[in-house]
Amino acid sequence: MITGNPPTTLPRAVPPTSWSDPERFLKLMSSPWGRTVIELQNAISVGTAKFWAERSVSAIHLPVTTGSVSSPMGLGSDSKPVPVDLLGARTYLADSMQFLLEFGTRMTSNGCYYLMPSFRGENADETHLCQFYHSEAEIPGDLDQVSEVVEDYLRSLCRAVLDLCPDVVLAAAGTTAHLEDVAARQGAFDRMTFAEAVKLLDDDPRFVRHENDGGETWRTLTRAGERRLIEHCGGYVWVTHFDRLAVPFYQAFEDGQRLARNADLLFGMGEVVGVGERHVTADQVRAALRLHQVPEEDYSWYVAMREHSPLLTSGFGLGVERFMMWVLQHWDIRDMQLLNRANGQVCNP
Fold it and tell me: Is 150's pLDDT higher than 60?
């Protein structure tokens, strides 16, 4: 696990230069780091396809543009959308295609998945990328069912990495013990509710952030809070049932409570996987849109989908580069990209 301060001694396979070096792509071609990133990307892709094929979950090909971002500028939004002009039509680069996975799940028996890029409007830092890869899936079922699938998926990914590229992991991380531990894990990861997490962290403002729009208050964990929980729980922990305004409108509500039916799996640098159960009916979505102060007309098609086909589904998104950070025990997500991409910049190649 990654806790405390970064190690002072770097492992053998390290990035040959800063991610901001304009000639980095040239140096990667003769560096072990380039091979490391590519082999790990390949293992994740192969392992993902194998995992879902064994479950008869369908791969789905989706566009990278959308008129309905999944993190709209409303309460519970944790990112900024990326607007683009598409030959005179204003649209967005997708921050996630979860909504269309929900659409696809209504036409498949066991759900659907994809591995594809996502785009965010924030600047990159040690744990965020402007453009990153998302491994996302949606299945028929509730929060507990999709959380169990996520744990099986992580075990499968670890086995794929150990089968396909253990040498590059060992050269970068100096160990494969963390992969072996998860791959062989029998029981579920530790779990606590958000309320229990706040109590454990003593509601310390370094770890828990309080927000209010003049009405209902909601709380979120800081990155430092996530890391404190990871350390307390020995490396891995689910935090479930966040305040309902701390997450976007599409997360279902816990009956009779101001809580969402969602969870984050924390390990490595912090949140690596987010999961959630969706609203079943159109009226539930409408109520959530009003609560989160998001105009219904922006998501009229999403409401209509439930009018036509109400269905209980749940889904998750895994940040691929964040998972790669944990695999390689590395400290800067920007080194997980072969080619740097930054908002507001023209990047070559």
Answer: yes
